[in-house]
Amino acid sequence: MNHPFLDLPPLTAEHFASIERRVADLLGTRQDVVVTQGEALLPLEGCIRSGARPGSAALNVVTGPYGTTFGNWLRDCGAEVVDLEVPFDTAVTAEQVAAALAAHPRIDFVSLVHAEAATGNTNPVAEIGEAVRAHGALFMLDAVASVAAEPLPADAWGVDLCVIGAQKAMGGPAGVSAVSVSERAWERFAQNPAAPRRSYLSLLDWKERWIDGGRRALLHAPAQLEMLALEACLDRIAAEGLSAVQARHAAAAAATRAGAEALGLAPYVKRAAEAAPVATTLRVADASTVAAKALAADPQAPLAAGGGALAGEMLRVNHYGAAASPAAVRAGLTALAAALSADPAAALEAADAAWEPAAH
Ligand SMILES: *Cc1c(COP(=O)(O)O)cnc(C)c1O
To answer: How far is the CA of 143 from the centre of ligand 1 (A)?
Structure first.
């Protein structure tokens, strides 16, 4: 019996390579792009284990929970790690990064998260990239929560390793991700005896056996469904227009922020310019109870309490992918109003009024 997503013809190497080229276009990069067949933590860990080694020194910027994970991997690789932690209600500044680099001249690797879906902030990568470039360190950027939601010119920003995933603003599945790798990152990896080789975490395997071989033979059977889904994401973004997709996310963020403020809630990220377009976080006491009430009112509402210790003080409203729409934003605010036993009318009006100006 024919099934819509089983019994498909095999995905060819040529088809796989064409999807990689389209991801490169999305990132505005002329570097090699490797599509990785797993959740974005796969290329993130692969980059760190390839780039860090005993004797290396890393600056790990922590603006949310992923930074903590990166720091742990870097330490596990034997690197000396300088953690630059900033409060989760702000962005890191290029001045802070430059000062940390100046204080630790040996730093040769910098890890940074662009937008933080978990804490709702976004960092000024263009300025930070300049500081990292001036220092000469390799620059890894976790752009999982920013790709398609905000501008991400990886090459113009001097990003050596730009990691994306399909599951946020691209509106796709979590099982596929990608990384762009600069020439000097490849060189660093090749010189690292501890870099994963003949391993699922290995990026060098893809360089040596796939890219250098002219992209003719895949390393293993490709994750066909995920590749087709990634291609469908790229088609859908192309049909809408990348800048329109980004504008829709910016509008969802502005509308959610305005609506929440009309409900008397304070944005967790104080400055709107530092708020991520994929998720709006709010400072709410006993957030897990409020989230439970909101979800009882509407089980589909795109919101959740903050993770871990943040559950007591942070409520997160997601608005990425299909949820970056006026209807989803309104649904989230309506559920939130129900949880607070408030009339949603003023919040919905404020959200509607904020949408248009932010979408242009
Ligand atoms: C979503 C996200 C990831 C992927 O992690 P999940 O926990 O699987 O969602 C990685 N980095 C950032 C910044 C993300 O927002």
So the answer is: 9
